Structure formats: structure tokens, C-alpha cells
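On clarity, I found the account of how folds are encoded harder to follow than it need be. Since the whole study asks how a given chain folds, the encoding of that fold should be made plain. For illustration, here is how one protein appears when written out as sequence plus C-alpha cells:
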Amino acid sequence: MTVIAHVSDIHFGRQTTGVAEGLLLDLEAERPDVVVISGDLTQRATHEEYAAASAFLARLKAPYVVVPGNHDIPAFPLTERFLAPFRRWRRHVSEGVAPEWTDGRVLIKGLNSARPFGPYLNWSRGRLSPAQVAAVASAERDPRILVTIAHHPVAYGDDRRRAYDLVTRGDDLLRVLAGRSRSLVLLGHRHRSHVSLWSKGGGERPASDADAVATGEVVIVHAGTAASDRLRGEVNAWNRIDLAGEAATIAVRQLTADGWAVGRSHVLRWRGRAD
């Protein structure tokens, strides 16, 4: 079994006092094989916020895979935003923005959906390039469970009013993943936990607490904000994902008055595998 801790939108600079420390302790207690962070480590991408993020990462007991979010690009100076948007990221977090990890059973591929600007007024929107989609397509025949990470949503999740959040070429990515037998996409940005299933013919449907994943369906997992005060209708949360054989168990660990505890969970089982 492979245990993934899916953490997102920590937003150093907008911390709720003590939550990041408690999050570290809960992650240590749950003992994941790998920690996946789907963007927005910082709030304003200042050097001070990045230093706090770097210290947090250094204290993780498990290996980690982290991709940038829109908040991880500095707003000012504009010269840095336009010409070197990930210079601070590379200094404090990682030399790369497209990390990979595997334990032999699971392959994790990170995609950087954050962009410093675009042909629209809202520069927080994300984009994927054809080359990024092609990089995921290269694993089409890989027998391992494929877990793709990005910050921006590729599907609506629980709020169809926020179509403006959807990442460019997200549909292309989903169509590629639907050609595999076992694929998950881990996302952030919305600050709301949600699990859904997507297929070419049926589009997106919410996952039930116990659900069968048919051939051609992609599992989409959104994470809440793990440690910030930027709450959107739910408490701080992160996802524990257990991958074992033909099953994926996704448990939302929420911060309660008594500490971190499981809220809702989903048990998904793949059916009709082709490999």
C-alpha cells in the first residue's frame, strides 16, 4: 500500500496561529510514504514567507512533491514577475517546477499550472501547455497508478459557478488520463475538499462514499486549505489517500476543537482494468 498525504494552500503569510505546527504533528502521526503539496505555499511570495515554507518542508519526515500555485509568484516587482517568476521558488523550495516520485507501484507527476500573466485580466488563472499534457500522455502505457498534481482545477468540483477557475487545457489532460486504467488528479486553489469522477462520455460526477471507478473514469481530488485563515465554508483540512491494489481510500482529515480527525471519506474501487 502507498499512503499519500495531499496537502494544499498552506499560504504562509496568512497563517492561523499554531495550525501549521499541528499539521506537521498530524502528518508525522499518519506516516505517509510521500507528502504531495498542490501549490500556494505562500500568500505574497515574499522572501520571508518562502523562508517559513522552506522551514516547514525541512521538518517533514516523508519525501515531498510540491508544485507552485498562483500565490507563489511575486506580484512585485513586475520585472521579476515577468522575467523570473519562479526565482524565489527555486531559491527556497526546489530547482524544478515539475517534480516526479515513484515507489514502484505509484508514479506521481507534478505539473506547474501557475503563470505570471496571460491574455486575461485575472492573472491568478492557470494554464497547461501542450508539452505538459504530452508529458503525461507519455505514461499512457505505464502499469503504475498515475497520480498527477496541479494547483488549478481541471473540473468544476462542488461549484459550477467558478468556471473561470478552470485551467486551460484541463480537458485535454483529462482525456489523456481517461485512456489509462488507474489515474488520479490532485488539485488545490479552491480551498474546498471534494472528490469526483470524470469520463469522456459522462463528464464529471460526484463520488459517493463507496463507489466503483469504471474503465475510462479519472479520479479528481480537491484539497482544502491546510493551515491558512482563508477558509471557504469548511475548516482547515488535508487528504490522506491510501492506494492498495484496486482500491483508493480518500479520507479528509479536518481540524476540530479536539485536533485533527477524519471527516468524510470515500472508498473507490477500480473495475474493468485493461492491464
